[in-house]
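We treat protein structure as text, and this decision shapes the records that our systems exchange. Such a record has a labelled line for the sequence and another for the backbone structure tokens. The record that follows is passed on verbatim for readers who wish to inspect the format:
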Amino acid sequence: MKRTLLFILSLALCLPLLVSCGKRHFVFFDDADTWLYEPIESEYAPNEIVNVKLGKVDGLATLFLVNGVPCELKENHAEYWLFSFRMPREDVTIDFKTYDASITDPDHIVLIEAYLTASHFDDGIWVQNYYGQYQSGARVAIMYTGTYNTTFWSETVGSETFYFRMTNRATVLYEGTFYTLDEAYQNGYLTDEDIKTVHELHKQAYPTLYIE
């Protein structure tokens, strides 16, 4: 009797897991019509290998995200890019973004790919001015994100005042998240000395904004 009860209890505990193992999950890819070189299935079983071939365009670098996590390029063919991942036990959303392949500076690539991972924007992004990586690991840059105007404005951070002419303000990347200069300073990611260094680099990059 005890053995029978133990068997029933074990079966009851394992049944949800068995059902989960057999359940297929969906793959969502909004830009499928634009990029797919070959069709893919709409759903896959857990642990099944999903191969995604995307039509290749020369001159572009790629960022392939599976539920927000970058996936490395597996094969680079003349006509298509091949990305491959193992299906998790959940639905998957694929995001595919590109940027100018002529950008080779590793610091710029880190910033661009972090921005694309966090944003839906992927049209003409580049690092306009890079102000370096600081002791905390924070990277400071002005990134062009497709917007421009001639409005002059300023931002005071610590003891320094930064002048800008574009809507693309100086931004700080720290552990995968972007912050404004003041947010990074207030959070302790940039020190007073860091701010002074960034300010000097900014003045050198935009001298006409500091003409008295």
Q: What stands out?
A: Helices lie at 2-22, 32-35, 106-118, 181-186, 192-205. The two ends are 93 Å apart (CA to CA). The chain has two domains: 24-102, 106-212.
